[in-house]
Amino acid sequence: MPEVTIHFVRHGEVFNPRHVLYERLPGFHLSKLGIRMVQETASHIVQDPGASAISAVFSSPLERTVETAEEILKVLNDHRESLGEPDLVLHTDARLIEAGNKFRGKRIGHAQGALWRRENLKLVRNLWKPTWGESYAHIAARMSDFVQEKISRYPDSQILVVSHESPIWSYRHMLETGRPEHNMLLRHTALASVTSITYDCETKRVLSITYADPACGTR
């Protein structure tokens, strides 16, 4: 029975001294701590005996995810070189992008981002349904579309995917509960964490879901 495992990695910490909700804004890069986080995660990935089966690396097109993927690729390709295998290259896919959010560019709790403002109170009505941005159903659907395509293309292999907290958790929650809606305060997707999902390539049924937080010691 052919299987494929997709490792969903959340990007590392971002340099954001003003605590702006950066969403899809350009110009937000990994912090020094974020780079160390990703390096810890990269070491964790290559220490897995199945690392040699990774045949493709994908990322959201945003800077913080691309930088995360590139840091992991450095370590992964060094490992592959030691095995005499060719380097992998990075591919970006817009379906992996951060969720849209109407608070983009604001400091939550301050000035225009203050939740007591009437216009903001109208947006945040239910933590289970993001009335302030892209719906969890739409997020999970685009992630699922990406996954279904890759399961067919990469049988008997592993894929590394770098994305964001909301897309990773919305998709996982849909797989585990049948619905993507969730309380955003209860997500289990730490910075630079790895959510690994294994699928049956023929039926596309989920066989297992595991979670690791290799960078927990760097926070």
Structure description:
With 219 residues, this protein is α/β, with parallel strands linked by helices. It has one domain: Phosphoglycerate mutase-like (Rossmann fold), CATH 3.40.50.1240. It is built from five helices and six strands; from the N terminus they run E-H-E-H-E-H-H-E-H-E-E. It has helices at 32-47, 63-82, 118-123, 136-153, 165-177, and strands spanning 3-10, 54-59, 90-92, 157-163, 194-200, 206-212. A six-stranded mixed sheet has the order 3-2-4-1-5-6, sandwiched between helices. Strand 2 (54-59), helix 2 and strand 3 form a beta-alpha-beta unit. Helix 1 (32-47) runs parallel beside helix 2 (63-82) and helix 4 (136-153) crosses helix 5 (165-177).
Mean pLDDT reading? 88
Helix/strand structural class: alpha/beta
- The spatial strand order of the largest sheet comes to 3-2-4-1-5-6
Rg over alpha carbons: 18 Å
Under the CATH scheme, the architecture is 3-Layer(aba) Sandwich
CATH topology: Rossmann fold
Question: What is the H/E string?
Answer: EHEHEHHEHEE
Structure described in brief:
This protein is α/β, with parallel strands linked by helices and 219 residues long. It has helices at 32-47, 63-82, 118-123, 136-153, 165-177; strands at residues 3-10, 54-59, 90-92, 157-163, 194-200, 206-212.
Characteristic terms for this protein:
Rossmann fold; single chain; six-stranded mixed β-sheet; 219 residues; alpha/beta; 5 helices
